[in-house]
């Protein structure tokens, strides 16, 4: 099973805690070389793209699925598009309004996120994520205040 998880809900924590889970960063498959950049665009460094991408990611995901490993990935528009192109099934995990406020008031600050990041995640990105999740037609799991990703996935 693949879960696309909203930032701050415990994806990395769960993967480190429980070997049945794998936290996958798409950039590790997309970037050919983490240290070398091909150019810079508006201050953002652009990395070399791995010529085997997205096939390398697809093979890795299929291998994990066959091994019965539960895959956790960041909830991003590009990730949704990739999984759709690969015809892989997934579910989304998003905070409800109360959890979003909890993340904003405590967790993001404890994690050291900037005020700009916190504001972006709790306004525009959250609304876009809700829209994309509903548009995908996939199962949407909701995390309430006081709960984490682990609580929602384990109740399944």
Explain what the structure shows.
With 156 residues, this protein is of the alpha/beta class. It contains eight helices and seven strands, in the order βαβαββαβαβαααβα. The protein has helices at 11-17, 27-30, 55-66, 77-85, 97-110, 115-122, 124-136, 149-154; strands at residues 2-5, 21-24, 37-41, 44-47, 70-74, 91-95, 140-143. A five-stranded parallel beta sheet has the order 2-5-1-6-7. Strands 3-4 form a two-stranded antiparallel ribbon. Helix 5 packs antiparallel against helix 6 and helix 6 (115-122) runs parallel beside helix 7 (124-136). It starts with a strand and ends with a helix. The model has no long low-confidence stretch (mean pLDDT 87).
List the SSEs and their pairings:
Blueprint: E1 2-5, H1 11-17, E2 21-24, H2 27-30, E3 37-41, E4 44-47, H3 55-66, E5 70-74, H4 77-85, E6 91-95, H5 97-110, H6 115-122, H7 124-136, E7 140-143, H8 149-154
Tell me the number of helical segments per DSSP (H or I, 4 or more residues long). 8
Radius of gyration: 16 Å
Low-confidence stretches: none
Major sheet: size, sense and barrel closure? 5 strands, parallel
């Amino acid at each position: 099973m693949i879960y696309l998880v909203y930032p701050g809900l415990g994806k990395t924590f769960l993967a480190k805690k429980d070997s049945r889970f794998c936290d996958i960063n798409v950039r590790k498959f997309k970037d050919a070389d983490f240290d070398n950049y091909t150019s810079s665009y508006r201050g953002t460094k652009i990395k070399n793209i791995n010529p085997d991408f997205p096939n390398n990611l697809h093979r890795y995901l299929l291998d994990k699925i066959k091994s019965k490993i539960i895959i956790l990935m960041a909830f991003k528009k590009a990730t949704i598009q990739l999984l759709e192109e690969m015809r892989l099934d997934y579910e989304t995990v998003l905070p409800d309004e109360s959890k979003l406020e909890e993340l904003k008031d405590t967790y993001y600050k404890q994690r050291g996120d900037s005020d700009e990041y916190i504001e972006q995640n709790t306004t525009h990105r959250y609304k876009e994520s809700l829209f994309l999740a509903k548009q995908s037609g996939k199962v949407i799991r909701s995390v309430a205040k006081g709960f984490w990703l682990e609580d929602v996935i384990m109740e399944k």
